[in-house]
Amino acid sequence: MSAPWSWYVIALVVLNVVGCLVLLWRTSRKQPNAEPGASPQQTGHVWDGDLTEYDKPLPRWWINLFYITIVFTVVYLVLFPGFGSFKGTGNWSSVREHDADRAAAEQKLAVTFAPYEGKSLEALAQDPRALQLGRSVFSNNCATCHGSLARGAIGYPDLTDDVWQWGGRPADILETVLHGRKAQMPVWGPTLRSMGGEFATDDVAFYVLSKTDPVLEKTNEASVANGAKLYAGICAACHGADARGNTQLGAPDLTDNYWMYGRSRAAIRAGLEQGRNGAMPAHAPLIGETRTRLAGAWVLSLSHPAEAAP
Questions:
Q1: Which of 4, 42, 139, 199 has the fewest Cβ atoms surrounding its Cβ within 10 A?
Q2: What are the extents of the domains in the chain?
Q3: CATH code for the structural domain at 112-308
Q4: What is the pLDDT of residues 223-247, one digit of tens each?
Q5: Is residue 294 packed enough to be buried (19+ CB in 10 Å), middle (13-18) or exposed (0-12)?
Q6: pTM (2 decimals)?
Q7: pLDDT tens digits, one per residue of 266-304
């Protein structure tokens, strides 16, 4: 907290405490009569002939309780932060308490996860208790992007099928969840148009779609032919001459029916014109290796049910 803000907070605290003291002192005294002839407990104001306004001080027990509250406030501000930049004589901080609570919780969790430390994904996938824990870990850390059932969404892969951008072997899955992945599709629109004309991105999209749609190839022969030339000159370097992708680069297979960003000419054109940037964060530093392995084992059980059978 900067010095001006610290002094501002201090001034507010002092003003409020002193204000409460003055208010208590004023309300605990009998006020002078507002009008002559009134009794000591009356203001002299009368309505409708018989409604008299009284002026009585607050009960002494209430006043004393309020004084005790103010004393408590002063003691609290001496021991704990709250008086500007003054940290308090107790040296308490929310960050330190959070870290202590987290450390205590981690110790309890370590006992639960200890039996699964260092085990392979295949072994964990055959343990029902490990899968139960793995699903819980997945729900708490992975479901935000991949969904509670791991079926993914636009821009996030489905983890329950056999299509794997970075490889679907247990070792590949473990590498992905432990250390993360970064995939980038460069912006190719300007380059394609300079090589193939105004409709170059559409031609490449037609060519890619024709891999799984023979009818499209027959009805758009010129576009598909031009797209094939452009693909061979630019896209084949990553996706391969046969368009089956490259798991070492994270380049997806373009000959199947799975498209993370949508299987349409508009979606493919958008990828070529704007590029794509995908990132899977490394979870080992976030939740630890054992919990990461458990989550990976649960994913393995979904996409490789035969290997997960006990």
A1: 4
A2: 3-79, 112-308
A3: 1.10.760.10
A4: 999 999 999 999 999 999 999 999 9
A5: buried
A6: 0.69
A7: 999 999 999 999 899 999 999 999 999 999 999 999 988
